[in-house]
Amino acid sequence: MEKELEEILETEVEKHEQNFNWDFVNGPAYSVSKKIKQEGFDIAGHGKVRIKYPLSSFIGILEDKEPIKKRFLGISYIKTPKAEYMGTLWFNNSKKGANEYSTWVLNVNGRKNLSKMAKLGNMLSKEYKLPIKVNVGTEYPVEENYILDLLI
User: Fold this and answer.
1) Does 10 map to a domain?
2) 130 lies in which domain range?
3) Which one of 19, 107, 120, 121 has the lowest number of neighbouring Cβ atoms within 10 Å?
4) Within a domain: 16
């Protein structure tokens, strides 16, 4: 009898699970990070370090630079420079005025990146039907950090 009840309960749970739109983290961060990656950018977390999965309160936006071809003692090689840290999209930060349900804030690093990030912000705003405030966070561009950079 107990085993039959367990089987019935499991099938009921499976039926309901199919109706859920499962998300990996609370809030919009995971789906927004997928959109950002589709636009050719990558994501970063604390300390401007590249990450695979987003944090729930913000997403750092990275743009890879072109590889540099070099030669040393007749041997050619390619060096991959650090990506440019384009800006931070805030979902939850009361000091910056961001709330994941009403307004997001996009802080742009480097005035030269403002138009590119404004286009990204506009696309995300239309997609998620929320206003996104775009601010210039720093006047000059910023590079990503590697995890070892933070230890030195």
Assistant:
1) no
2) 25-150
3) 19
4) no
